[in-house]
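As noted in the main text, all predictions were made from sequence alone. Below is one such record, for Adenine deaminase.
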Amino acid sequence: MELERYRILSRMARGLEKAELVFKNANVFFSHTGEFVPCDVAVADGKILGTGTYEGHKEIDLSGRYLCPGFIDSHLHLESTLVTPPELISQAVRWGTTTFIVDPHEAANVSGTDGIDYILEQTETVPANVYVMMPSCVPSTNIDDNGASLTAGKMKNYLENPRILGLGEVMDASSVVEGSVSMHEKLALFHGKVRDGHAPFLSPGDLNAYRMAGITTDHECVDYAYAMEECRRGIQVLIREGSAARNLEAIVKGIVENGTDTEGFCFCTDDKHIEEIQREGHINCNIKKAVKLGLPVEKALKMATIQAARCYGLSHLGAIAPGCQADLVVLSDLESLEILEVYHKGVKIQRDRETEKIPCAPKLKNTVHILNFTKDRLKLSCTSKYAHVIEMTPGQITTLDKREEVPCIEKNGEKEFEPNRLYQKIAVIERHKYTGKMCQGIVKGFGIRGGAIASSVSHDSHNIIVVGDNDEDMYLAVKELVRTQGGYTIAEGGRIFETLPLPVMGLISDAGYEKVHAVLSRMLKKAHEMGIGEGFDPFISLSFLALPVIPEIRITPRGIYLAKEDRMLKSPFDE
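Prediction:
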């Protein structure tokens, strides 16, 4: 700041001259101390000048309403919301989230640095603070078949970008603890910056080694006990409440019941659909759920503001204090926590503001390339009475590996797996490099009857994944996604019911959130009518069944992967 400008602002801060903008008669949340204090807040140049008693050229009388710092989502993937980044942010900011710490590893796994550049370009001018963590695991493991590889050498060009805060979630924990050269080159490259974790269910010794490598956050805790193991080791736990993984209740209940210090916790969404954001909100939803579970509102607000800011070294955010950015949320009261207004750099967010449309490179809309896919390849031969079954866990993205007797029938002299109400067929088809790789498996707990669901969103390699109870509909669903160059689709009775095209890298729609919301709502309704349980998001849940870094069992184009044993099966019927 130039000295002359500082002198002017100093006079405003001291109340010697009118401030540009003053929020009058507010109950101000001071996140440094965790208390509400009645006072005014003076703002100029998009920054907080001070708190106390002020006069302004423009005054906004809050009449005793509650004024908080803007909320921070400490970990999310913009691509997982299905809409373009500016559209997602335009929706989420209305719910009070003014800062987004994003990891573009979905885009990077499909399109490499072109995908990262897309995220940076799309978020350069949005009315919010968007920071990027450099994807660490592209591909996520050495058994993945994705579209690109991101080495430490390719990351160096991004180090000077002020919006790059550090290294994104390090999913390949074994590479960390076993001292992989390529992984530790990436960790060393971001020495002195934040290095995010992804460390579900590590043993105590492995967790020690993982933390010793300099990783300081994790969003994969699913229960209180494991969260505390991480907190004790100095790992900041980012409590996740998204569309598929809902970990908040289990962790916050433990915090409340045990009177745990909350300094080691923040909030994140990770993966949350635009439809759900529009319906229930964003980080404000995490706050409300935590408070409903008995957490004091002051502690929940600190987790959503200053604790996240401190975690990521954003000293100008997360507080209503002199010199901090004037990102502000006006709440009606502390019971409903209804959001009345949101400000970014002192400017009110207009709910009817038209979202800027930024075109993407044509090559990002040509990413679905499969080879030698026929209906016959979906046939799954029974070579045993028993098979490894992927059993889904309600409300989680973890799975159970169950060795169970499954239904088989004889066709043309050969026994084949026959889906029923309990067991369905699942397949993953490589879609990046025309390799022709494909694997079939058996899933329990999905529940679909009379059709199939397919998606080009399948973490983190984003090959085509399809589940159904008959080969005809599964085949139609896959071919439909080739036609649309990605998306979600439902096939029923030998025809396509409806498709949500996601042509940008097979991950994102550029048709507008209204269209996405309308189509997705119809498709979710149809999916539930086809037997999928209420409260279960079939598309997001399906998308995680190919991610080999999550226990216990996954399906990849190379085979069935048993995560706990770190071994691959060519068929679910293998021992």
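Residues 420 and 469 are 7 Å apart (CA to CA). The mean pLDDT is 95. These features were considered when defining construct boundaries for the mutagenesis experiments described in Section 2.9.
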